[in-house]
Amino acid sequence: FGYTCDNLVSMEVVTADGQMQRAAADENAELFWALRGGGGNFGTATSFEYKLHPVGPEILGGAVVWRGEDAAQVLDFYRRFTATTPRETTCVAILRIAPPAPWLPAELHSKPIVAVFVCHSGAIEDGEKTLVPLRSFGKPVADIITRRPYAQMQSLLDATQPKGRRYYWKSNYLAEIHPNAIAAAVEHAAHIPSPHSSIAFFHLQGALGELSTDHCPAGNRDTAFVLNIASSWDNAADDTANQRWARDCFAAMAPYSTGGTYINFLNAEEGRERIEAAYGRQNLQRLAQLKQKYDPDNLFRHTKSVLG
Questions:
Q1: What pLDDT digit, counting tens, does each position of 123-176 carry?
Q2: What are phi and psi of 59, to 5 degrees?
Q3: I need a surface site. Which of 19, 181, 272, 291 has the fewest CB within 10 A?
Q4: CB atoms within 10 A of CB 172
């Protein structure tokens, strides 16, 4: 169904002048365009109205896990598998150290693994057929794909991002998963300095690619995957090592990216060039013009600014 902002029908927002305004395609259309991806640069939203789609209440979801030494083969399969799946099937491939989860074999805890998380939001029977190749590939060590409430699927990985930990992310969009990108990911996954860190490939495509690049500020509609290098650790003394690992991995995989990025994955040190990579030059220029109109004094500056 595309990005969340693609399914936004209207908003109520308090703008910098203290006025409550409704923004929709037929009312304050310029502001509505900016709010769908321009984020907190333009006001404080007090309500959202979304277009809804029938999903569930149960979906087919979970994960299949293999040993870390199988990562290259699994990622190559993942690349080919996602090229054939219907848009109701979304997959995320993750390289990381196995947590002490009860559904993983105890002998794999603290060892490298590769996992593919799946959410099939169409008919359960269709999903079961679609996922047969994934569940039977190689020698999986765990398979927790099952019927489950959609809301449960949404919170399945919440425990991996607890408050209080230290986080540093680097991210790029990919038009494809190049074989050299697989090799780079496998190499850097073998040197993860923290058991909480991961390298993830988020499967996109589908509806988001059917809208024009100027439909809303959220750019990069020609993308197929999001690469997210998510470094996470416990102690401040380990900041340098963990940030260096994420930066090195990002640099090694950059040649195989589109150069675009997802605005919500940008970190504090990434500036104008990366903001433009997220929105696209024309969209960013349009956002900056609207910022001057709706918030000329830059009251809303807690987020990535669209001003030059």
A1: 999 999 999 999 999 999 999 999 999 999 988 888 888 899 999 999 999 999
A2: -125, 175
A3: 19
A4: 25
